[in-house]
Amino acid sequence: MDMMMRIAALSEETMKAVYPEVQGLPDKQEIRGLLAVPPDPKMGDYAFPCFRLAKPLRQAPVKIAQAMVDGWIHSDVARVEAVNGYLNFFLQRENFARETITRVLEDGLQYGSGEEGKGKTVCLDYSSINIAKRFHIGHLSTTMIGHSLKRIYDYLGYQTVGINHLGDWGTQFGKMICAYKKWGSREEVEKGGVDELTRLYVKFHEEEEKDPSLADEGRYWFKKIEDADEEALSIFNWFKELTLKDTAKVYELLGVSFDSYAGESFYNDKMGRVIEELKEKQLMTMSEGASVVDLEKEGMPPCLILKKDGTTLYATRDLAAAIYRHDTYHFDKCLYVVAYQQDLHFRQVFKVLEKMGYEWAKDCVHVAFGMISFEGEALSTRKGHVVILEDLLKQAVEKAREIIEEKSPMLENKDEVARQVGIGAVVYTDLSNNRIKDIDFHWDRALNFDGESGPYVQYTHARCCSVLRKADMEEQELYAEALTDDEAQSLLRLISRFPDVIREAARKYEPSMITRAVTDIAQAYNKFYYEHRILDDDERVAYARVALTKVTRLVLQRGMYLIGMEAPERM
Is there a catalytic annotation at residue 385? Predict the structure, then answer.
């Protein structure tokens, strides 16, 4: 039982003893959920607001808090004070240190994991790259938020399905085939890859301005794809292979993988069911020649299902995809990690699913995120200001290599550490703030070894590893009294709360909560490290401080893993 649950259980026990006849009092689970961390440690380690008890007890919170303090008999766990209607708990420091360290060492790298997700499935739709286009920095957030959430849910015992919903459908692919047939060659495309495909696509639009009839040729070739023409499909699938080969290098650098690459084209033969069902349930109406689902009563514009010419839209495909995913994976949640600009689209899709009678529509969630800019400049494909993600990652590794060469010239595996630090710096930057906030990527911030950054957290982990290498000590009983100082207790509090942070991150779909937690732990450890000599002359003290270093390293390593970072042992 963790410390918060123990305090909650003891609070419930005290409450029942002080108010034995009262019904409707919170149980330990609810109490645990209401426990808060005071902003100032001097106010206690945890606090419980007695305002929740005012109604069932018909008393003022201040009076309730004092009655609870008077009835509290568990001084071995915590000292309790009543302050302005709050119960403030001060942990018994020695016991707290012993219990926290023992628990982390027993659990090891599984500390904070759980089985609450056992038997449940979470589908995650993330990254969703576009075929025949380079993987740019604009796709970083969807990729890393989705990847981190997948690891978080895996860690909590869920079955997860990572889906890369490829953007592989639309008239643009007919235009690409047309451009390839007119101005390209197999040799040049094989040699230039996605860059050559992009060149051909740009060339098509330049020529289209001179000869508008090219648009008809583009539509003609896309119709051939739709009709499963052998030549058109062969070229189309080749373009897809080239793109996935290009993006595989980026995914490998980031350590990202998927369970499914079923993209838009996969649902081409699955939309008929959706359209027929909408007709049968009399949900589809005509509006200016297009087929729509009216959502006026829900305060939204109509959801377009078919254009005037009968062609499908994004919504049609997303409806088919959601139904397919539920039929196939029987998900308990389906997360769509997509930029906030698509908020209306997903609200419409989820509402249509609900109107179709799918009770599980409530389990579909749009995990929105903000925009990313680079060195103060907004990104724009049309204006040509695009940062290719592979280039960014390679540049990050090169810059990290230069810094490591300067700071640690004797380090043996500089190339491997530079890769871990460079990639980690990019990932940390992307996941360092609340996901809905816009990000402005700056090199000097991302690769700062001293500030709140990926390299700083990794360096702290390497520092812990260094201490543990130097500490050649036989196992002995933990002298917890050596860990009652403010610095050790501050660090232990953060470590003890780590399992709760993981669950909160899963509940709010917010990996940045874990990024914040590992940063706080790194800062607290460094403060402890500078204030106290770890390898003290007193062996009992040294052993206790080394044990605290060991659990810090374990939590930092696991926290970094959960957000998609590696943990170098030497830097």
Answer: no
